[in-house]
Fold this protein.
Amino acid sequence: MDLQLSGKRALVTGSSSGLGETIVKLLAAEGAAVVVHGRDEARTAAVAKSIREDGGDATVAIGDLGTDAGADAVEAAVADGGPVDILVNNVGVYNMTMGWANSSPEDWAEIYNVNVISSVRTIQRFVPGMRERGWGRVIQISSVTGESPAASQPHYAATNAARNNLAASLSRELRHSGVTSNSVAAGGILTPAVQDFLVNLGRQNGWGETWQEIEPNLVNALGPNDVGRIGRRREYADLVAFLASPVAGYINGATLRADGGRYDA
Ligand SMILES: NC(=O)c1ccc[n+]([C@@H]2O[C@H](COP(=O)([O-])OP(=O)(O)OC[C@H]3O[C@@H](n4cnc5c(N)ncnc54)[C@H](OP(=O)(O)O)[C@@H]3O)[C@@H](O)[C@H]2O)c1
């Protein structure tokens, strides 16, 4: 399928690593000009360089989206290359060792700021231009924990409910404008950091020694699904690229779950 992304420009927040890196590389490979964003200058520049080496069009924006000043810096860096047509709000933090007993009110406020208000900052800076031009795509990356929270990471799960909710509200705000707003609620995403954490957890719990041994056991224990494994980054990126494209113009205000058919243990 031709996603018709040539001529579009996309900003993917938090694309210096993890899922965001895979999304920004895929959008570039599909023909979009992309802005790679992060706080770490070297990591962010390395992703942009690799896209350019593969023949893509990539620039860089650095800034902490947990602050207004950081968001202003991102806006200024992005403005140099022209308007943004596609905004993927992927920045997010989580901490798999936190629960009700060890998360302070400050932790709840901080994660809300980084995972939710960061998106408000980018939406308010980049979406008015999309509305004026009559076309745009806004995509929140969230997690299935927004709809199906576990006992662990309650503060993180609450931010995912908020991410889904704000995506739907934004679609109402943008009605009849040509700009759509959706959320992708992801199940587990196999990033290098997640894999390292889970291998250690698996060994502690006697689920195996190698990743191949551990993966099915940890999926059964922590979040069983009908596919029987954790999602790969490219599987989520493919869905985001589709939503970002002109082809997906009739999908709006939705939270799309990609979780292998997750069910409660
Ligand atoms: N991993 C999972 O299993 C999973 C499951 C469901 C949903 N998600 C969601 O998927 C998204 C990406 O997760 P990931 O696992 O790929 O994370 P990751 O590898 O830790 O990457 C996070 C990215 O966000 C950036 N970032 C973090 N805080 C920032 C801030 N205050 N300002 C600007 N940039 C900031 C980081 O940039 P720098 O390092 O350059 O600062 C990095 O590029 C998150 O929103 C997460 O909630 C993840």
